[in-house]
Amino acid sequence: MHSAYYDVIFERIETVPGDDGQSVLDARTVRVKKFNRTTYVINGGWIARRPLGKSTSTNMSGFYFDGGEYKIFFSKVFGFCDFKILPGHKEIFEDFEAHTTIPVPPEACPYPAMDKEVVNYALKKEHYNFIPPGLPGEQWRININFGEDGVDWGGINIYIVN
């Protein structure tokens, strides 16, 4: 099954603390709300506590829900600046930034530390290709964790349903 056939709805986003008890990306005030009959959007405060650059390790892992637990489907590690310009990621990043109060271009490296608002961001169907073909189940979690020099900076978990 090709990912374009998924009908993705954001369920929630949670902030995951790092070694210092905080997350480099703070999404605690981000909420998912129903925008209209078929669309859910993300709104709220988004804080990058420090710059994210080439040496920032970015671990993206995908999980599917089965038998009462999330099971890993894939995991990849990139430098942050490479991660955000990968095919599929770049388009999502550009669209996400266009829905913020302080847009950052995808080629910006490092990504600056800042506090901004996300306003009515909905993942477009043409960007569903970030979901690997054949992902089992109907409930998924995408973990994105950051770090540098062996120090865990925390990250975010994105819960989505099909």
TrEMBL record:
This is CLUMA_CG016768, isoform A. It comes from Clunio marinus.
